[in-house]
Specification:
Bound molecules: uridine-diphosphate-N-acetylglucosamine, calcium ion
Structural class: alpha/beta
Largest sheet: 12 strands, parallel
Distance between the termini: 110 Å
CATH superfamily of the largest domain: Spore Coat Polysaccharide Biosynthesis Protein SpsA, Chain A
Oligomer: single chain
CATH architecture of the largest domain: Alpha-Beta Complex
CATH class of the largest domain: Alpha Beta
Length: 452
């Protein structure tokens, strides 16, 4: 049998007032990625031929975020939020000629897994209409999946419209509904708003399909996957679930974590096997960590590539544009930004290295600062291979310290330094023998006189 392709509709209209935010609900982020994009990521596993996102008229920001991520998505505006069924009716005209299954998901359920969607796709290969259900610990508020005497699903009853007996059912609607393209126009056309909410319910397509003798099926998924995010508390619950999954995945891939619940990943963090991550590490977007690296406690890392066997922290901050080659050492209280640090170089303590290139095996002493900003522009600092920068030096960019050069500690370097040269720029030291003793005696005497 040939595989029936699908089109996907993600419903994202409505303000989400319970978030109490000026930002659209589905733009709130989980692991640094807007919820609606998580939903779009999950459906990729279905290899959909069409992806349609339904938004409200005032949601240009959502449109921008979605199209910026994936310009193959089509945006449909639902003029008024008259219900999930109405939202799908607004899309109907785009799908009249579509010869495949239509799968509808909600934009505010960001934890649906690719595996569950694939199982659903299998169900839809052999059914006219399908739904993903789950067993709810507390089913209050959810639509209930009603079964007929033969065990087949015959309807979804929304909580408000359900009888006392139906409310006892704990098998609930996740919101994912599928329809064969051949039946889609008829099912969608037949929806009415004759219910407790006065809304067009998408869920009514199940009862309509059953009454037309169509084949209706359901699969079950974990309640965790269908957590709907309507409030900031639910957003943080979803984040916790996402992070736990990411931690488990990292450990399965060979990453060692001492205290996994204290490590936070971004949606795109890549960590290779045999990396050790100590407690309390936060990964922002765009991080790649090569195998054998150690990330010590309390590091904050974003937009950084970390080479093999590198050692970072404790208490290091790597900002966007950081590229660390193999075996680089970045120690405590070091900040690095937009800088390439070559193989085996060391920045061990209390330094700021920004807009810089550091050669292989260079040694940057404690308290070194690249003065990269003049109040208007950023400038480059170049430090050559095997160069040695003495502690507490300021390198005023643009400046170049050639291979093998030394910078005396405490220097303020404003001019380029030649290969293998020594640059010192600080007040010359003067020693005055006996000065301290004389000073002390004089002051002790004065103090005594004052007391008398
Ligand atoms: C819905 C289901 C319910 C299910 C529950 C799971 C219906 C009628 N009910 O209820 O069976 O158990 O989700 O969480 O489908 N939306 C639009 N346009 C609209 C209305 C909603 O795009 O006019 C979008 C919302 O942005 C949201 C989604 O559809 O992403 C769900 O809408 P919501 O009003 O939250 O439905 P529930 O009452 O939670
Ligand atoms: Ca909801």
């Amino acid at each position: 049998m040939t595989h029936i392709p699908c089109a996907v509709i993600i419903l994202a209209a409505g303000k989400g007032t319970r978030m109490k935010s000026t930002k659209a609900k589905i733009l709130h982020e989980i692991a640094g990625r807007p919820m609606v994009l998580h939903a779009l990521d999950a459906v990729e596993s279905l290899n959909p031929q069409k992806k349609i996102v339904v938004v409200s008229p005032d949601m240009d920001d959502v449109t921008r975020v979605v199209l910026n991520d994936d310009d193959t998505v089509e945006i449909v505006v639902q003029p008024k939020t008259l219900g999930t069924g109405h939202a799908v009716q607004c899309v109907a005209e785009k799908l009249v000629k579509f010869n495949g299954n239509i799968v509808v998901l909600f934009g505010d359920t960001p934890l649906m897994t690719a595996q569950t969607l694939q199982r659903f796709d299998e169900l839809m290969q052999a059914h006219d209409v399908g739904v993903i259900g789950f067993r709810a610990d507390d089913p209050t508020g959810y639509g209930r999946l009603i079964r007929g005497d033969d065990g087949n699903i015959t309807a979804i009853r929304e909580h408000k419209d359900a009888s006392a007996g139906e409310r006892e059912i704990d098998f609930c609607n996740s919101g994912v509904v599928g329809m064969a393209g051949k039946d889609f126009p008829v099912l969608i056309e037949a929806l009415s708003n004759d219910n407790a909410n006065g809304e067009y319910y998408l869920t009514d397509v199940i009862e309509i399909a059953a009454s037309l003798g169509l084949k209706v099926g359901a699969i079950e998924c974990d309640e965790e996957e269908v957590l709907g995010v309507n409030t900031k508390t639910q957003l943080s619950n979803a984040e916790t679930i996402y992070q736990n999954r990411a931690r488990a995945r990292a450990m399965e891939n060979g990453v060692q974590m001492v205290a996994p619940t204290t490590v936070y990943f971004s949606h795109d963090t890549v960590i290779k096997p045999d990396v050790i991550i100590e407690p309390n590490v936060v990964f922002g977007p765009g991080v790649f960590v090569s195998s054998g690296a150690t990330i010590r406690a309390f590091c904050h890392i974003e937009g950084a590539l970390i080479g093999k066997n590198a050692s970072i922290g404790p208490y290091a901050r790597l900002r966007p544009g950081t590229v660390l080659s193999d075996a680089v050492k970045v120690g405590n209280f070091v900040e690095i930004k937009n800088a390439e640090i070559s193989k085996g170089a060391k920045v061990n303590h209390l330094s700021y290295v920004g807009d810089a290139k550091v050669g292989a095996h260079a040694n940057i002493g404690a308290g070194t600062i690249t003065c990269n900003y003049d109040g208007f522009n950023k400038h480059l600092t170049e430090i050559g291979e095997g160069a040695f920068i003495g502690s507490n030096s300021s390198l005023v960019a643009p400046v170049r310290i050639a291979d093998g050069a030394y910078v005396g500690s405490g220097s303020v370097i404003t001019k380029d330094v030649n290969r293998d040269a020594l640059a010192i720029s600080r007040g010359k030291q003067k020693n005055i023998d006996g000065w301290a003793k004389t000073y002390r005696c004089k002051n002790v005497k004065n103090k005594k006189t004052a007391k008398d």
